[in-house]
Amino acid sequence: MGRKLASSDRGAGPYIWRFSGIERVLHAMVIVSFFGLVITGTPLLYSHMPWARTLIRMVGGFQAAGFIHRICAVITFGYFFIHIGHLTYRIAKSTNKKRFFWGPDSMVGQPRDLQDIRDTFKWFAGKGPRPQFDRFNYMDKLDYWGEFWGVTVIGGSGLVLWFPVFFSKVLPGWMFNVATIIHGIEALLATGIIFTIHFFNVNLRPEKFPVDVVMFTGRATLDYMKEEHPLQYERLSREGRLGELIAPPPSRAAYLWSVTLGLIALSLGILLIGLIIWALIQGGWR
User: For the chain, which residues make up each domain, given as ranges?
Assistant: First the structure.
């Protein structure tokens, strides 16, 4: 496996830190829990399909699938609240809280993002240059805030279904039917977005094909930063802070593991979305 397979390792160095250790750990928890939830939940939506029954048998049957699904739900709530706690700590320690929410490193949507969306479509149509981004672009922010929506809506409806006796004391009976519908539809929507739009944007577009492992190793080459985040590179250079982010190259073992896991996740995600599309073509959701 070549050293240049991953887009984050192509080009000239040195390496620059892009993600911290806790961000990488939380992202790993997202990957594990999301795949676990999709693999054990999707077969219930398409139980009439042969592949759904095969998938359930592979995880040990419906009882085992239910157990795995709940474990992955706990992991989901775990990374969500760990992130909220870490975010609260960083805000409390920040000496410039306005910059924290409205600065170039913020995940809060800003007017510049609307301009970037407009400029991106102009670029697609050949009517303008490719837009340049800082540390996070509008797709990164949509992915980020999508997690909040997903945990709230999918997680909230899942809790209602997980603890029906408790919630029956405060909710009318029809709410459980609503929770069932919302849980399935929103989970299917999240699966479709992650395994198509997200996968293409962060891994499968030509500049990044076949895989980008920056979220696994936490670092990327200077050439990668100049191409993907030119405004961040220029800002850090101008402020004299680029040297603070110099990172050692990932070890060969770390690189190989990152690429292998990334390609496995991509392949599995594409397979799952393909099975869902096949089920929709064959007869929809029963």
Answer: 7-282
pLDDT tens column, 71-105: 999 999 999 999 999 999 999 988 888 888 888 88
pLDDT tens digits, 188-206: 999 999 999 999 999 999 9
Q: Is-contact 76 33, C-beta < 8 A?
A: yes
Taken in order 102, 104, 108, 114, is the CA torsion positive or negative? positive
For 7-282, which CATH class?
mainly alpha
With residues binned 3-state (H G I as helix, E B as strand, rest as coil), the percentages for the chain, rounded to 5, are 70, 5, 25
Q: State how far the Cα of 262 lies from the Cα of 255, in Å rounded to an integer.
A: 10
Could you give the CA distance from residue 52 to residue 32 in angstroms, rounded to a whole number? Answer: 20
State the pTM of this model.
0.92
- Measured CA to CA in angstroms, residue 215 lies from 26, 120, 178, 188, 252 at distances of 10, 24, 36, 24, 16
Question: Which pLDDT tens digit goes with each residue over 223-274?
Answer: 999 999 999 999 999 999 999 999 999 999 999 999 999 999 999 999 999 9
Coil, strand or helix: which one is 284?
Answer: coil
